């Protein structure tokens, strides 16, 4: 992509109303544009990041035999009345049509996915069944001011699993947990799992996946030797206590941000929508359901909160909008211009995703500042000084190296 053609350039000044790092940097670097509080447009660079995060999630979901579907975000009121969500969920967005029909905007999709499977499963042999989607969700937040961390509209992966026994749910939960931790690791995040009760409406357990970051809204106690993690507000434990789970390490304290969750829904939704199947002993049973969320746009915000310095963003490899940022210096010189263009074309032909700063009338200092702000992991420079080599620099290091094109390509695929 030629930077001169890119829609959504860097801004000289951060937005005045930005109170969080992710809002400030993502806007200034040309990734997002706030439409109103909690609602954002993703510009070309931002959409590439969002798509990359979704790709990682999708790859891992498919590996555990979850099947992707796409459900509507506009839901009939009737389904939400069946589950009592219409009156019980205060963050549910409600709409009225011109014929006075009422609708909800999806904040979770049990009200759609449960009736969807009705009639499509009839015995335990049809289970487990795991369906997921990656789509927009809506929450009527009273205050939405943490950039893309907590939006009124946000991009999310939600998976729903159906099981004939509690044991099978537990078995699948363990698989989902490992998969979640793998997803976060691929995206450069360390996540811990907290266990909490279902929040008063049910005795069922829910799990939260918390990423350790100073920008997090939760304070947690966690163990370095195992997954153990609790929210400090509810825990009787304190910093320095021995881990209650593995008893190997003392608990540490950190700030954290929730990036995923799992709910054991029990039989609630299958009872609400009257779904029965034939169980292993021939009796009629209601299946057990689990719900598993990952905030895709939220992860993008958390990554920026965690990976930044005074000059801008530092994207992890799997999330970055482009693999390399090629900067041409002195492009008013015909020889340098053609050499930089050739480098760009050759790297593209080697399947390197590359953002090419081809602007002629911009100073080197400004180009380097933009490259740091945008935060692609590798910066390449072609100039009069570089001769037949390319200057290679990683975003998080000071050191530069002079490499041949082949050596640059090799670096991408390590
Ligand atoms: Zn432990």
TrEMBL record:
Q: Which Pfam families match?
A: HGTP_anticodon (PF03129), tRNA-synt_2b (PF00587)
Q: List the catalysed reactions.
A: tRNA(Pro) + L-proline + ATP = L-prolyl-tRNA(Pro) + AMP + diphosphate
Put simply, this protein is called Proline--tRNA ligase
- Tell me, what is one Gene Ontology molecular-function annotation carried by this entry? proline-tRNA ligase activity
What is the protein's species of origin? Candidatus Roizmanbacteria bacterium RIFCSPLOWO2_01_FULL_40_42
- Its domain of life reads Bacteria
> Domain Aminoacyl-transfer RNA synthetases class-II family profile, which positions?
33-316
The alphabetized UniProt keywords are:
Aminoacyl-tRNA synthetase, ATP-binding, Ligase, Nucleotide-binding, Protein biosynthesis
- Cellular component GO terms held in the UniProt record: cytosol
* Coiled-coil segments: none
EC assignment: 6.1.1.15
**What Gene3D superfamilies does the annotation carry?**
Anticodon-binding domain (3.40.50.800), Bira Bifunctional Protein, Domain 2 (3.30.930.10)
What GO biological process terms does the UniProt entry carry, in alphabetical order? prolyl-tRNA aminoacylation
Q: Which PANTHER family match?
A: MITOCHONDRIAL RIBOSOME PROTEIN L39/PROLYL-TRNA LIGASE FAMILY MEMBER (PTHR42753), PROLINE--TRNA LIGASE (PTHR42753:SF2)
